[in-house]
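Sequence, structure tokens passed on for absentees:
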Amino acid sequence: MFGDLIMWLNLLGMLNLLEAMKEHKVQNLVFSGSCTVYGHPEKIPVSEEEVVGSVKNPYGRTKLYCEEIMQDVVQAHPEFNMISLRYFNPIGAHPSGEMGEDPKKINANIVPFLGEVAIGHAEKFTVFGDDYDTPDGTCIRDYTHIMDLAEGHVLAMKKLENERVGWRAYNLGIGKGLSVKEIIDAFEEASGRKIKTAVVERRPFNIDAPKVMADPGRAMAELDYVPKCTDPVQMCCNTNQPFEECIEKVLQKNLAMSESKTVLLTGGAGYIGSHCALVLLQHGYNVVVVDNLANSFGSEDGTRAFSLDRVQKLTGKPIAFHNVDLCNRNELFKIFDEHSIDAVIHFAGHKSVQRSLYQPFDYYENNIMALLNLLRAMEAHKVRNIVFSGSSTVYGQTGKVPVNEDDHIGARNPYGRTKLFCEQIMQDVLRAYPEFNMISLRYFNPIGAHESGEIGEDSKKPCVNILPCLAEAAIGHVETFAILGNDYDTPDGTCIRDYTHVMDLADGHVLAMKKLENEHLGWDVFNMGIGRGISVKELVDAFQEASGKKINAVIGERRPFQIDAPKMFTDPSKAIRELGYKPKCTDPVEMCT
């Protein structure tokens, strides 16, 4: 299984392509999807209505996430017209034999590997497991001839030319399964060569389902797709092409973890980052901050961040600041070269749910590229510990409160999906590089500021969080405060959230960092909240009491795209039990002070 970061370039390639299409007003796109989005499906044959998301490998996740990105783009830019063709095990070659599957990289698919054995370039063909719940014990797949797949793409393109579909997925397969053993037998008949086989253990990480085959009914009905090659012997004809050499896999090194002393904060000049920098300095850490000041105020020459100036004043300790965009990999690597970084807390990224609905390109490209570059830099410089700024938005609208870490995840907006994708990327990287040590802290509505009043939520961009917006109304910068919907299924009709004081969140990051220093977790997630919900109306009332100012609150319509769940608050017991986390500020009036 390939867990290398290179897999996630699939996402960046998709984003660049879609941006180019938008810029040049090209709207029709057929995407090379994959049946791996279904994971281990419970129902065979698999239809397009089967639940996606139980993906078992990084490749499949990139395909699933590319599909979700496309759907987000269609929602934001409805002029796009997109089809994803989900393949089921391509096989075969053109009848001429002039072209076929002839990769530069190691043969991973079944027919090229059989070809290697047949021509003597490999000693034997490896069968990964013969103890599956199938008639002959080997995995069953829907092998589909490459020429039938090619025809399917042309049919999909014609569909887009003649009809507005928006977004649609189609399975491309033959609708029946063939086992690995059946393909070996067919290859021997087609090639006239005896194939020496060796049965070994199943592939790791439980990535192989016993049976996966398509129900191609939708493609047949809507695209006029009819697979012509369904005989396994015919599939194996004209595919026995020689491969001159194979490359060896690179072995990974296991490196011992080191004690954390210097922490790199990405986005450390921002709201939560600056508070975390203060607490880390108070706990004796050295702090290095990387921030491009896209959302924070600084000097005209970009050499100083005003929030960090105030943190240094409060603590009497220095901070090394670098005005660098994480998307600039070369500059990021220079920072790792300059400083002896022991651990990373990753805050940087676009963070507005609402803006993400209208700026999916920016959110996907920025948030994912930043993490990829950061992990690359960490791997190259042997930095293993990272605390990730996660989000409760990964849970979507669960319908269940309080939410714990084992609840179903299913983000409903581009921002939340970038957080979810980043978590999955981190887990994939960990699988390939087990020396990494990672925690994601999923926040539930940060609020408040340091008691000094020197640092707080002071963004360059228009306020979207509740407390800055209330403050804007209190000081007269805006006439009203809009409550977006009062018809939710809650006691007062307004949304209920788990508002968590920023200083409690900062403490949580230090506790998570100490956990990584003392224990090799691999990967873990913790919810950060107070464990109870406060409604928007209750918070408005609390702000009025704390500030002594009357807020002119008006009722507006709900936000679009159904992005707001009526209730969302956490069960923080895991963080309390395993990190020693204990929120100190739970009173809404105190939060607003």
Summary: The chain has two domains: 5-236, 262-592.
